[in-house]
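Quick start: load a record and inspect it. Here is sn-glycerol-3-phosphate transport system permease protein UgpA:
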Amino acid sequence: MHKRVTFDTKLLPYLLLAPQLFVTIAFFIWPSAQAVWQSFVLEDAFGGNTQFLCSGLLADPLGGEAWQRCFRHFDRLLSDPGYWHSARLTLVFSLLVATVGLALALLLAVMADRTLRGATLYKTFLIWPYAVAPAVAGVLFGFMFNPRVGVLAYMLSGLGIEWNHQIDGTQALWLVILAACWNQISYNFIFFLAGLQSIPKSLIEAAAIDGAGPGRRFWTIIFPLLSPTGFFLLVVNIIYAFFGTFGIVDALTQGGPGQATEILVYKVYKDGFRGQDFSGSAAQSTILMMIVIALTVVQFRFIERRVHY
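Running the structure step on this input writes:
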């Protein structure tokens, strides 16, 4: 029997929800609405002269020219080869960051969950990187892999690998992926470790008594019971790869060399704030927001079916 929470006054629930609603409206709904609006207007770099592009639809709703003018920024954007390059790059980047980050975090959580001497110290060290801001993580990896003074770059050169991510686009992309995974791995580790500790030990002991080895116990008992945690982290990591890695890219490569690391979220910033194309940047923000919403819906619609609650 479920107990229903009751409040003494009808106003109290709304007061408790007010801070979160204010944050959501002020920092998500309102900026998103502004981006959608700006993607349908034409304005100068200083915002002094603004023209609504869809005004012609009121006079001629079936006219092809009116619709073409209304979606002028989107049409120009989707015909730009550079935008499609950034879209493909973002897809590969997000998949690698999510899969590699989740796999390494799960491996570390399984190892840390064992009964070891000093396990608490190991767990503390594994959690600490989450306190590092993305921009700071980008600076750290840029310094360690600096081709002139970087310690790790020097070690790679000793192995016969000439490292210079400032001119090699492939190396720059892998370096950004490595920094993004390192920055997010502690967050994934915390949730995986909590999920492992919530699994009843009696189930694992019973499977061991029945003769199941460590690998079989993991794939048949532990991994299915971790699927709710894994599904939650998959959604969070995809969103992180699309939006949260901006600071790493900006501090580490600034989208270069060339456009080798110019993912969509950085292209929005580059075209809007550097190129002063605010309407085109707003159109990119709108498309990026729709992509993330669509990916989240697909994950909840199809992947959640395999989750065992």
